[in-house]
Amino acid sequence: MPIYEYRCNRCRGEFEHLGSMNDRDSEVECPLCGGRGAEKLMSRCQTKVEMSLSDFQALSDATAGGGCVGCTSGSCSTCDK
Ligand SMILES: [Zn+2]
């Protein structure tokens, strides 16, 4: 089966999803936030972002808390959180 890349419309996270004939893009569930309605990315290589799931969750947590990406490491020199 082909692997497609999607971008979540809710958390803007990108993830890969094994395609199947029965899948409708609008019903692909985001593994990061559980939201539906991800859009398929046409280009595999240009926007490829290598992040682990934990990185994504840490990033979204920091974003939700008003911090910055640096906050995920515990001490942040950018925003002093
Ligand atoms: Zn999401």
Topology of helices and strands:
Layout: E1 3-7, E2 14-18, E3 39-41, H1 53-64
Antiparallel strand pairs: 1-2, 1-3
The protein binds zinc ion.
Give me a quick take on this structure:
This protein is of the alpha+beta class and 81 residues long.
Plain-language structure description:
The chain is of the alpha+beta class and 81 residues long. It has 2 domains: 1-49, no CATH class; 51-81. The chain has 1 helix and 3 strands, in the order E-E-E-H. The chain has a 3-stranded antiparallel beta sheet with strand order 2-1-3, with no helix packed on it. The mean pLDDT is 74.
What is the number of beta strands?
A: 3
Low-confidence blocks of residues = none
Sheet-strand content, in percent, reads 15-25%
Rounded to the nearest angstrom, the radius of gyration is 15 Å
Assign the structural class, choosing from mainly alpha, mainly beta, alpha/beta, alpha+beta, or little secondary structure.
alpha+beta
Bound molecules: zinc ion
Average pLDDT: 74
Number of helices: 1
Order of SSEs: EEEH
Rough outline:
elongated
Counting structural domains, the number is 2
Strand order of the largest sheet: 2-1-3
- Helical percent range? 10-25%
Largest sheet, if any? 3 strands, antiparallel
Distance between the termini: 44 Å
Short descriptors:
3-stranded antiparallel beta sheet; 81 residues; 15% helix; elongated; alpha+beta; binds zinc ion; 2 domains
